[in-house]
Hints:
There is one protein chain. By secondary structure, the chain is mainly α. The protein is built from five helices and no strands. The protein has one domain (8-68, 83-131). The chain has helices at 8-38, 44-66, 86-92, 97-100, 110-131. Helix 1 (8-38) packs across helix 2 (44-66) and helix 1 (8-38) crosses helix 5 (110-131). The mean pLDDT is 86. Keywords: Membrane, Transmembrane, Transmembrane helix. Pfam families: DUF7555. The chain crosses the membrane at residues 20-43, 50-67, 114-135.
Amino acid sequence: xAADRPHPAALRLRQAIDALVYAVAFVAVLVAIAAIVSxxxxxxxxxxxxxxxxxxxxxxGISAFQLRPTPPWKDDDPADEREETRFQAAVQRLPPLGRYxxxxxxxxxxxxxxxxASVLVLVTSFVMEAGFGIAA
Length: 136
């Protein structure tokens, strides 16, 4: 194990924090976009909840599909997979990732972070309906 790599338990904890911060940022951006669209159209928070529900299931399906293992007969170069997107770069500047962030090679794949984000989107939609009574 290289000297600059953290202990495996510490690495997993930092990966979990990275995925959670990514998911929270994803939900915040999605709620903001849904509110910007639904409030002027007169749908209010019900429109936000429906947008979260449908986008959550869509991203859930896409990310679950991307999480499939690579078939053995494919010999694509996985080096391009860990490129940092603009959204990921913005998320990396959020606390606590600015201090405890990981190198792109140490992070979970984007599909795993999107899967966590989709579950958080669906939980947010459920809490809006069951917890706050926002329903059509």
